[in-house]
Every structure is written in structure tokens, then in C-alpha cells.
Design a protein that fits this description.
Helices cover about 75% and strands about 0% of the residues. It has nine helices and no strands. The protein is an all-alpha fold. The protein has a domain at about 60-190: Orthogonal Bundle (Tetracycline Repressor, domain 2), CATH 1.10.357.10. Keywords: DNA-binding, Transcription, Transcription regulation. GO terms for molecular function: DNA binding. Pfam families: TetR_C_13, TetR_N. This is TetR/AcrR family transcriptional regulator.
Length: about 190
């Protein structure tokens, strides 16, 4: 008979995500995880196999949370231009509220590990395609309705906006000045004219 876990896996995953996000993969030791998660080393290994698997699960957890928030914005906002504005504002508000200036967990993981870790690289590429796809669909629909100018290819605009999002997420590691980010949003949206 399988043993019942004496901890909430979602809660543990949230704690692990925050530890990795703050310290990075290489900066987080197994002892940090045992101490920070409040579970025994054997429970950690039984549930997550190893540190790398736990890291990947943490990245997936973060990705799902962010995609869910963006999906709600897309669903609940009628205007294409306003969807993009609200998505950018959501991203920036998350970054500005973070007192530790951690930036984006996915971008941080990419900078730290993507060149050496195929699984991390694959996950980040999939996430980029998903977010770019959100922007592409919104822009394409906006161009078809006449709300967004047709001067640029929708795919190129989506890639441009995604690149700005990633840049903002790196910038947030060193500043929380809302004015800087508001200027970036305004300039980014201006390419849709």
C-alpha cells in the first residue's frame, strides 16, 4: 500500500519555486530545499526524484500560473489593443510589486541554464511560442478588424512585443520605477498604430 504524503504538494511546489526564483538553480542547495520546504530529504526525493526534476516542476508551475492570468485577460477584454495593454500592465505590476526584484523566474532560468540544459531550454522555447502566439492572435484579429494598423506583419509585431516583455523582466531585476515601465508600454503600443 502506498504511503500517504503528509504535506501539500502544491504548497511545497510554491515554496520550491520561490526558493529557486530567489537563489537560482545553482545557488539553491538540497539543504536549502529541505529547510525551506519543511519536508524531509527522503520525502523530497520520494516525491520529486531529484533537485532538477523539482526545478522543472517549479518552472512549469510558474508558467501555468502566468499563462492562466494572461488567458483571463484575453478572455475578459474585448479590444485587441486593450488586451495587449492589460497583458503588459499585468506583467509590469507583478514585477514592480516584487520587493526582492527577482524578475521573471522563466527568464532567470533561461539566462542561468538554457545554454546547458536542454529540458530547461525546451520549456522556455515552448513558453515563448505560447506567449508569442497570444500576441500574434490578438494582433492578427486587431488587424482584421481595423483596430491595429496593417503596416507590419502580425508575427513580427508579436515577436517584437515578446522581446520587449523579456527585456522588461530583466530590467525589473535592477529597478522598480513604474515610470520607466509605463514609457516602455507606451512605446511598445505605438508600433500598433
Amino acid at each position: 500500500m502506498a504511503r500517504t504524503k503528509d504535506f501539500d504538494e502544491d504548497e511545497v511546489l510554491e515554496k520550491a519555486m520561490n526558493l529557486f526564483w530567489l537563489k537560482g538553480y545553482n545557488g539553491t542547495s538540497m539543504q536549502d530545499l529541505v529547510d525551506g520546504l519543511g519536508i524531509s530529504r527522503s520525502s523530497l526525493y520520494d516525491t520529486y526524484v531529484d533537485k532538477h526534476t523539482l526545478f522543472l516542476r517549479s518552472l512549469e508551475h510558474y508558467k501555468e500560473h502566468t499563462a492562466g492570468k494572461m488567458g483571463k485577460i484575453i478572455q475578459n477584454t474585448p479590444s485587441a489593443r486593450e488586451k495587449i495593454r492589460r497583458m503588459l500592465e499585468y506583467i509590469i505590476s507583478e514585477l514592480v510589486r516584487d520587493k526582492e526584484h527577482k524578475g521573471c523566474f522563466l527568464v532567470n532560468a533561461g539566462v542561468e541554464m538554457a545554454s546547458q540544459d536542454k529540458e530547461v531550454s525546451t520549456m522556455l522555447c515552448e513558453n515563448d511560442r505560447q506567449v508569442e502566439g497570444y500576441f500574434y492572435d490578438i494582433i492578427k484579429h486587431g488587424q482584421e478588424s481595423g483596430e491595429i494598423a496593417n503596416k507590419q506583419d502580425a508575427r513580427v509585431l508579436a515577436q517584437f512585443i515578446l522581446n520587449n516583455v523579456k527585456g522588461v523582466r530583466v530590467t525589473a531585476r535592477s529597478t522598480a520605477d513604474r515610470r520607466v515601465f509605463n514609457d516602455i508600454i507606451s512605446l511598445t503600443l505605438s508600433v500598433l498604430n
